[in-house]
Amino acid sequence: MKWNNVQTPSAFLRGVTLVELMVVVSIAAILLSVSIPSLKSMNANNTASRLINELKLDIGFARSQAISLSTTIQIIPINGSWSNGWRVLQGATELRSRGSTSNPIADSGVISSTDYNSGTPITFDNRGRAQSTGSLTLHVPYCSGNKVFKLSINQIGQLIQQESACP
User: Any idea which of 3-12, 42-51, 125-134 has the lowest mean pLDDT?
Assistant: First the structure.
């Protein structure tokens, strides 16, 4: 049996023209330029959610440890800045920490408080009550929606979260 060489029509062998390629590249560039601001906002919102959850988790941990161990537990900002991170302390013993001065958990000013600082840390007594009331504010630049958070701690040690719109 002999096979014949089949010739394919030249229409099937055509490539992509330069004009067609330029149209596709232009469409891709337009789509990318439209989506980048949305990605920036989405990243900021994810960062805000992660930070507020970590902060709430560690405040709850500190209060729980104060009750369980029947002792005083403190949460202090690292090097005076909440954006650097914080340490959970039982006296001089560190129970947990997040961040450091060399590897901060957020940009400067993202987490702030006028009530709590190194001199006035968040402190829970052996019954889980806060020694002083106050709040922390978390605002990540370029966020969208209700992603500015305020965490308030009342005298009984209850954590109250408020959300407000991003500017």
Answer: 3-12
Helix (H) or strand (E) holding 117: none
Phi, psi of 87 (to 5 degrees): -125, 140
Q: Which residue from 31, 29, 48 is spatially nearest to 147, judged by alpha carbons?
A: 48
Q: Are 158 and 62 in contact (CB under 8 A)?
A: no
Per-residue pLDDT tens digits for 52-66? 999 999 999 999 999
Partner residues linked to 75 by β-bridges: 88, 122
Q: Which helix (H) or strand (E) holds 138?
A: strand 134-138
Q: Which residue from 115, 163, 116, 113 is spatially nearest to 143, judged by alpha carbons?
A: 163
Encode pLDDT of 64-82 as tens digits.
Answer: 999 999 999 999 999 999 9
SS3 for 136?
Answer: strand
